[in-house]
Amino acid sequence: MIKGIGIDMVELSRIEKIIENKSSFVQRVLTSNEYELFQRLPHKRQVEFLAGRFACKEAFSKAWGTGIGSVGLHDIEILKEQSGAPKVTKSPHKGNVFVSISHTETSAVAQIILEVG
Q: Which positions does UniProt annotate for Mg(2+) binding (predicted)?
């Protein structure tokens, strides 16, 4: 049974400015494991990665029904399967978590589905 569905979209230009300004936003959003993956990427992929992870965490909080605040950004971790597909590896949800991330030239979008039972 589906407990919640969340979706979020982030503009890549906004994230690129944040990265270029060396903002602490990157560490506030990414867990240490996510940050390790982020650091290995070229700049363009860093922008897409951070935007996608932020969109995922926002989408999760919407599916969870609370918004960011009741569930923290570090309470949710999105790493990847061996195939490269994103995978939620840490969250307060006890059931299955399904995630999809997509990018265009200007945006990143993420959808989360929380399943129970």
A: 8, 58
